[in-house]
Amino acid sequence: MTMGRMSNKDARCAFEDSFKRATSPMMTLLLLNEKPMYVYNLSQELEKRSNSTYKMNFLYPVLYRLQEQGYVCEHSQEITESHRTRNYYNITESGREYLKFMLEKYRELLKAVDTVIENGIDGGEEDQ
Predict the structure, then answer these.
(1) Partners of 35 in the β-ladder
(2) Which of 30, 65, 69, 95 is the most buried (most CB within 10 A)?
(3) Every domain of the chain and the residues it spans
(4) Whole-model pTM?
(5) Helix and strand numbers, DSSP H then E, in the chain
(6) What's the CATH fold of domain 24-123?
(7) Rg (alpha carbons) of the chain, rounded to whole number
């Protein structure tokens, strides 16, 4: 690997990391829109629904950012007789509005990317 250039493996990881970073707030709000969850539950649910393809190892920064923006709120709940608590996260009304916006924008962008890809594939075959 030369200085300033990524290996193919690094480039693939960078693409996946960037995609997850961009979509993790949407995925988090999507799950919280169904019911309040704690971090481990969120992580496991996302992994399960994506057939282990979409794993988020750093959910706390995402949740903290969503909380600062007013899209998520946190509450503690006692889960044992020994007063052990667990922090649950709920989506707020403004979080639901933001989720709706993100889903619309995501679908719009995905459609545009698919169109470019299809035109590129079709166009590329004609040149050969």
Answers:
(1) none
(2) 95
(3) 24-123
(4) 0.80
(5) 4, 2
(6) Arc Repressor Mutant, subunit A (1.10.10)
(7) 19
